[in-house]
Design brief:
The complex is a heterodimer of chains A (188) and B (310). Chain A is α+β, with helices and mostly antiparallel strands and 188 residues long. Chain A has two helices and nine strands, in the order αββββαβββββ. The chains are: A alpha+beta (188), B mainly beta (310).
């Protein structure tokens, strides 16, 4: 009887910690990339999307991103068409994802505003191909909001995105990606 | 509501135990929810938005006729069109390749829904200009639209020294002019397949003889089937509804491939038409496919982003 009682109290405490999880999110995260080839053309091979979704669970360090491929805006309309139609095949793979975790969660003092270097590891899905990825970035705490910033590189061919040799010196296989988000507390 | 009944239980110990059990159950279920594979699933789906259907054709022309695709805003399309001689001319003329007529033209996307262009053909030294406006844009999502509707109006100017060849009809501005209007009803059925119908009206101020009507009514059908990301099969047929029976001409039929290489689009095709504007390929003499009176031709399109998008 007593044991059962203690067990129930313990379980209850555990479930209360599960309740107290805090999530932060945004739908206006910015993701931009630059795939400028060796040619260093006048025309920029770059695009930006300011409608990405990001959600972070500060209790577990779990972090997820989603972005609509069609939402990437190029300066050159034809480039945007080719990006959607030929390279990313956005009709088949409309979204890209990242699902991962902050590795050094213990280094962040959630009660103290400031900038914390973080390492995030997880799985990135681009063009329907899932790959493990690790990226370093800065997590900043300002007035109850969480800022996330990172620059990293992905290799297009790893994700089955073929760049024809004819544009090989114009479009780089190594794509520089930068992400920037300001997360607010998620209220259901 | 049943949860509240716990407070009605008589024994305080039992009451506490039941309360703890309920809390634990709630927590347990909640933990289950946490185990869901994705945090993103917890965000409610974004508001549905209206999504325009894009890239129905690779080019604003099917082959000869206008397509349901518009030029993007601020884009200049420099087009060089070639039509060689008839394949039935045989080896002496290298199956028509020794002769060519051409049209050189510039189209510009003024807004996402408005394009204007002009061109000049060697055939009849003809100058042509048009405006093309998208009235409806095929869309999915919040406000779906099953098809795109595009209006095109154009005029042509015969630049020959003596366009009629008849001293009774000396050249004048009005005798050189013709007009065309068309409505394009198009739908991209799938990523690969696009089909469009275009009722067309052509008015020529002067015609060859008294029995030939000044007004021609035609129904054109054009389509595309994408073979790969960069290659598509395209076809374009114009059925003239009121041609005089004695007329020896045929309705224009063109079949070809769109090949895309970076900033260029090559349209390689076979056609029985020589004309490269609506007046010319609908009202001028066309060859007979069954007698191999067809010609090889290509359209070369090079687009430039002249002003940057908003």
């Amino acid at each position: 009887m007593k044991i059962e009682f203690k067990f129930l109290i313990l379980l209850t405490l555990v479930s209360f910690t599960a309740f107290s999880q805090d999530k932060f999110f945004t739908r206006n995260a910015t993701i931009s990339f630059d795939a400028e080839g060796a040619l260093k053309d006048v025309e920029k091979v770059a695009a930006t999307n300011s409608g990405a979704t990001c959600i972070l669970d500060v209790a577990t360090g779990q972090m997820e991103w989603a972005v609509l491929i069609r939402g990437f805006q190029f300066e050159n309309a034809l480039m945007q068409e080719h990006f959607n139609e030929n390279y990313m095949e956005s009709h088949k793979f409309p979204k890209s994802f990242f699902k991962g975790k902050i590795n050094n969660l213990a280094d962040i003092n959630w009660k103290q505003d400031g900038q914390y270097p973080v390492t995030v590891a997880g799985k990135m899905t681009i063009h329907g191909v899932e790959k493990d990825i690790v990226a370093k970035g800065i997590l900043s705490l300002i007035n109850g909001k969480i800022g996330l910033k990172s620059n990293f590189e992905v290799t297009a061919s790893d994700y089955g995105v073929k760049i024809p040799s004819i544009v090989g010196n114009k479009v780089a296989n190594e794509v520089k990606i930068s992400v920037n988000a300001t997360l607010e507390k998620f209220v259901r | 509501m049943n949860v509240l009944k716990i407070f009605l239980l008589k024994s305080p110990a039992l009451r506490l135990r039941m309360l703890l059990l309920v809390c634990w159950l709630a927590g347990f279920l909640n933990t289950f929810a946490q185990d869901a594979p994705s945090l993103l699933d917890e965000l409610e789906e974004e508001q549905p938005v209206t999504e325009h259907v894009r890239y129905a054709f690779k080019s604003p022309r099917v082959i000869n006729g206008h397509s349901m695709e518009m030029l993007h805003e601020g884009v200049l399309d420099f087009r060089i069109l070639h039509r060689f001689g008839s394949i039935s001319d045989g080896y002496y003329q290298l199956f028509g390749l020794d002769n060519a007529t051409m049209r050189i033209g510039f189209d510009y996307g003024l807004t996402p829904n408005l394009t204007a262009g002009f061109g000049r053909s060697t055939h009849l030294k003809e100058l042509d200009g048009f405006i093309k406006y998208r009235l409806l844009w095929q869309s999915t999502g919040k406000r779906p639209m099953p098809l795109s509707v595009i209006w095109v109006s154009g005029l042509t100017f015969n630049g020959l020294k003596d366009p009629t060849g008849d001293p009774n009809y000396p050249p004048s501005l009005s005798r050189r002019m013709s007009y065309y209007h068309m409505l394009i009803l198009g739908r991209k059925f799938s990523e690969r397949f696009t089909l469009q119908l275009s009722p067309t009206f052509v008015h020529r101020n002067i015609v060859e003889n008294q029995i030939t009507p000044n007004d021609l009514y035609a129904l054109s059908i054009g389509g595309r089937f994408k073979i790969s990301n960069r290659v598509a099969l395209v076809w374009d047929y114009g059925h003239v509804l009121n041609r005089v029976s004695s007329n020896t001409t045929a309705n224009p039929l063109s079949i070809g491939f769109d090949i895309e290489t970076g900033g260029h689009i090559f349209q390689l095709h076979f056609s029985n038409a020589t004309g490269m504007n609506e007046r010319a390929f609908l009202s001028d003499i066309n060859g007979d496919w069954l007698r191999s009176d067809i010609r090889f031709g290509f359209n070369l399109s090079r687009v430039f982003q002249v002003s940057s998008k908003k």
